[in-house]
Automatic annotation (TrEMBL), chains A, B:
Stored InterPro entries: Nitroreductase (IPR029479), Nitroreductase-like (IPR000415), Nitroreductase_HadB/RutE (IPR050461), RutE-like (IPR023936)
Annotated organism of origin: Streptomyces fructofermentans
Name of this chain's protein: NADH dehydrogenase/NAD(P)H nitroreductase
Coiled-coil zones: none
Domain of life: Bacteria
Taxonomic lineage from the root: Bacteria, Bacillati, Actinomycetota, Actinomycetes, Kitasatosporales
Length: 195, 195
């Protein structure tokens, strides 16, 4: 056995955890989201950029506005989930770097001039943090239903601004019903090569 | 306490885990990498794309070629780490979708025509998997030193091909010495808003 993490934690976070498409009525509290964030905020990003921003869609009106921008197949489950979060990347993350990376004061200047560089970096590092967040949702005993099927420009205009790019929409709650059989994964020998 | 994951696992994966810049001489085995992959391969990606590809740089010659493409500040630690991995995203991931998403045979056709759509999707979903991989390295009791400071085009030409985009280079091993004090993180109220 090459892993140090105990088997129950392996199961909770990866092996038994499944993307959920249906949930019980049990609410997801702000305290749970705070606990998830306060754990996964420590996940590493390049230059400690931490560009992830999270919008919790709680009011019925906001939920309705979001559902309109989801792909047809994602609408019913997004309307019904106990909580829905829009995960986005802040392209102006560099404004916070003097505070986030005090031992490297030049960091902000590295990103000041080139917005396309910031866009690429925010996308990659925001996605890293989105993955940590999904792992954190599972660490809270909840299930995540991450979705990429939505009108990104529509969601951005409705809930964000030009400086925030949507990464995904995530349904969150206690899972209900049985998931479909797990889809296959690539074998390690198809993914890992050695030089 | 809002989390279900036990405190030791929280510490191992997030709270006590730190990016490492120096390592002991203890080797990192193929069995360890296999165990990491076989755990984190279950992390979710859009349409089960799983575009992450991993190149383990083991031979002295390959290590030397890689170090040349690293930023100056990353060279010494990349030369000295027990193992170095290049994480890349496969832009042609859609070729595997008929096998990876058997319940949705239309998936491949969704990506067939538009390479820019695949590039964006591979980048985001490859980054999700890179984050799962970093969590998995920690689950194996190892430390990761992920780096974005390298000549991406150079690394791509040297080790990959036009269909594989480098995401990051990761040093892997048992950490040595004391890390610098942890950099600050944004407070939950700076990151999470509710609508």
């Amino acid at each position: 056995m090459s892993l140090v993490l105990d088997a129950a934690a392996q199961d909770l976070l990866f092996r038994e955890a499944r993307t959920a498409n249906a949930f019980t009525d049990e609410p997801v509290t702000d305290e749970q989201i705070r606990a998830v964030y306060d754990l996964v905020k420590y996940g590493p990003t390049a230059y400690n950029q931490t560009p992830l921003r999270i919008t919790l869609v709680r009011s019925p009106g906001a939920r309705e506005r979001l559902v309109r921008h989801m792909s047809e197949g994602n609408r019913a489950k997004t309307a019904a989930a106990p909580l829905v979060a829009i995960l986005a990347a802040d392209i102006e993350f560099h404004e916070e770097l003097p505070r986030l990376l005090p031992h490297f004061p030049q960091a902000k200047a590295m990103y000041d001039t080139l917005r396309p560089v910031r866009e690429h970096s925010a996308l990659v590092n925001g996605a890293l943090q989105a993955a940590y967040f999904i792992v954190g949702i599972r660490a809270a005993g909840l299930a995540a239903g991450p979705m990429s099927g939505f009108d990104s420009v529509g969601v951005q205009k409705e809930f964000l601004d030009d400086d925030h790019t949507p990464l995904m929409v995530v349904n969150i709650g206690l899972p209900a019903g049985s998931p479909r059989p797990r889809s296959p994964r690539l074998d390690v020998d198809e993914v890992v090569t050695t030089v």
